[in-house]
Design the sequence.
């Protein structure tokens, strides 16, 4: 019985397979749209291509103004093959966003779309027609396998994305021996963060097809001196669509658009939802950031020794992380482990420093330096890119450190308030950093981009353009809200207390203990002497957190 059943299934599977393999469909498209300057799309539609089958597309041109067409096919996640007439090396393209060129005369090529995947795909076909004067996208290609390749190629690693366009060909430039006849302009559009839906993707592709739509939805990517290549900071899990427009120098109303391309800077098929911090150590760090951040934001100044330790730990950890990444090639858990160990040492040293010397100004200086670093990082993220002067590391880091020090010195000139402010800002940022990861927004890249600039070779040419969507504005609001409430709460908590607790074991000679209770720059409050409230201060300082 079961043998018969088995045979039956085998037969059905064989039958279905044979159906699939012979399933070659034909469609014929009549190109009779009128073109405008801003919209040169002759045809666009979705087609279904079943698994392991080929779709044949014939085009009939009715528009006499068109001299060549660009035939594009866009697929979501799965690669397809597009070829003309015969599938030979040099006339077929493999990828998710592919295109081919065909002259209208004597006749438009027949195109074949081969879905070699084991699932049915919905594909978006778009045909654009251009006139005699328009440059041919990819017409002077030297790197891509197809002689005329009007499509782009993206590559990514964990830090950056590269978008490449083959050189276009101008009408005047018959032999491709000049590179200045056509300029390439790149645009980018972000998809909603952590959204891997096909609908969202196709909607984005459609918004980057014609020059009218590109100018409306796209964001210009400045040229950082890489010729036909653009380098962008990677935000894994945030889809982005790229397109290049070739504009003739001699006749600026002659242009053509490459087939747009996209990347999530991660592979949703393999990685699921593109969790980049999937190792256990990162998860533990993220979770502890949330709680330590809340603690520092609301109680950092009150538990001053704990704050000293945590600030030392953070600063030491970041510095070690940067130094090790520059010098050695470790994987993330090892790098994080080493940074944390070194951070703990730094924290302990900083704590001991306060313990024995107890100079408020110096103790607070490290916190303000951290805020200065954050401030410089925010400015770096807001820069438009394409600033040639800042591509030099010397210029960049001089400016970065200058802004950092200025912020820090401005803050440190009001010691008590600045410590409370730093606790609130840094603690709130730690909370936001960890929430940011779970929400899939991009506020954590403020720090990550600066660390990349320090550690990733050639990152000086990357354009940051961080995504700013509703989740990011929510995170920024949360940051501001937490920081303000933390500042007010700590200010209120500290009202009537000595501005700084006495260091437990001061070895500085000749400093009366009451110094810490009375004089602090700019605090116009009624001075109170520690000895009057010995119990309360000591009790709050004997926090069990570090003991
Ligand atoms: C499609 O066209 C080709 C050649 O013109 C022909 O061999 C094939 O049978 C056609 N397929 C279908 C499903 O019409
Ligand atoms: C284009 O061709 C289609 C099919 O032949 C026809 O239905 C349509 O009316 C034509 N459109 C124009 C603008 O000629
Ligand atoms: C071709 O271009 C001319 C002017 O440039 C325009 O008047 C005409 O409508 C165009 N023809 C088509 C089919 O778009
Ligand atoms: C493609 O298939 C989907 C269902 O899988 C269907 O909803 C859609 O109408 C089809 N589209 C075309 C163009 O056949
Ligand atoms: C796909 O089709 C080819 C022949 O066209 C066949 O050799 C191959 O086994 C098929 N693959 C699947 C997964 O059906
Ligand atoms: C598509 O092709 C690219 C390179 O050709 C490859 O890296 C990628 O893994 C392929 N994707 C799938 C889903 O097969
Ligand atoms: C097919 O595409 C290739 C590469 O673009 C091109 O060289 C060839 O002329 C095209 N046409 C035919 C009929 O092969
Ligand atoms: C410039 O290009 C436009 C669009 O292709 C064309 O209509 C126009 O005639 C061209 N001008 C010159 C001077 O070639």
Sequence:
């Amino acid at each position: 019985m079961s043998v018969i059943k088995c045979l039956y299934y085998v037969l059905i599977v064989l039958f279905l397979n044979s159906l699939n393999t012979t399933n070659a469909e034909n469609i014929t498209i009549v190109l009779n749209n009128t073109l405008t300057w801003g919209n040169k799309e002759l045809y666009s539609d979705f087609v279904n291509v079943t698994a392991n089958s080929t779709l044949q597309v014939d085009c009939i041109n009715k528009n006499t103004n068109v001299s060549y067409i660009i035939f594009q096919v866009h697929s979501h996640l799965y690669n397809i093959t597009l070829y003309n007439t015969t599938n030979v090396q040099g006339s077929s393209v493999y990828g998710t966003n592919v295109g081919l060129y065909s002259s209208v005369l004597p006749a438009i090529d027949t195109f074949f779309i081969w879905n070699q995947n084991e699932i049915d795909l919905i594909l978006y076909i778009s045909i654009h027609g251009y006139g005699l004067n328009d440059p041919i996208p990819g017409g002077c290609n030297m790197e891509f396998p197809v002689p005329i390749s009007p499509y782009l190629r993206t590559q990514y690693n964990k830090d950056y994305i590269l978008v490449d366009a083959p050189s276009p060909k101008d009408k005047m430039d018959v032999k491709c021996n000049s590179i200045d006849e056509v300029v390439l302009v790149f645009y980018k559009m972000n998809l909603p963060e952590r959204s891997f839906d096909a609908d969202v993707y196709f909607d984005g592709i459609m918004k980057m097809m014609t020059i009218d739509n590109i100018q409306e939805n796209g964001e210009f990517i400045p040229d950082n001196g890489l010729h036909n290549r653009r380098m962008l900071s990677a935000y894994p899990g945030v889809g982005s669509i790229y397109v290049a427009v070739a504009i003739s120098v001699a006749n600026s109303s002659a242009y053509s658009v490459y087939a747009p391309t996209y990347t999530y800077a991660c592979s949703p098929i393999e990685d699921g939802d593109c969790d980049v911090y999937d190792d256990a150590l990162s998860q533990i760090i993220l979770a502890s950031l949330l709680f330590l951040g809340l603690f520092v934001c609301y109680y950092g100044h009150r538990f001053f020794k704990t704050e000293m330790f945590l600030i030392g730990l953070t600063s030491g950890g970041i510095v070690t992380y940067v130094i090790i990444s520059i010098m050695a090639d470790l994987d993330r858990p090892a790098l994080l482990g080493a940074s944390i160990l070194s951070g703990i040492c730094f924290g302990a040293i900083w704590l001991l420093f306060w313990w024995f010397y107890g100079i408020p100004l110096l103790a607070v200086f490290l916190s303000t330096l951290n805020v200065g670093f954050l401030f410089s990082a925010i400015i770096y993220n807001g820069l438009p890119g394409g600033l040639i002067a800042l591509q030099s590391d010397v210029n960049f880091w001089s400016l970065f450190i200058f802004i950092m020090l200025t912020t820090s010195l401005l803050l440190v000139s009001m010691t008590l308030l600045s410590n409370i402010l730093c606790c609130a800002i840094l603690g709130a940022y730690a909370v936001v950093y960890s929430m940011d990861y779970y929400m899939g927004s991009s506020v954590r890249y403020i720090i990550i981009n600066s660390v990349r600039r320090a550690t990733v070779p050639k990152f000086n040419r990357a354009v940051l353009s961080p995504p700013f969507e509703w989740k990011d504005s929510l995170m920024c609001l949360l940051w501001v809200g937490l920081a303000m409430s933390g500042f007010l709460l700590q200010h209120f908590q500290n009202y009537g207390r000595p501005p700084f607790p006495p260091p437990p074991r001061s070895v500085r000679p000749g400093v009366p203990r009451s110094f810490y209770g009375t004089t602090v720059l700019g605090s116009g409050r009624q001075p109170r002497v520690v000895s009057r409230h010995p119990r309360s201060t000591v009790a709050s300082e004997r926090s069990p957190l570090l003991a």
Remarks:
- Residues 152 and 217 are 19 Å apart (CA to CA).
- Residues 280-493 form one domain.
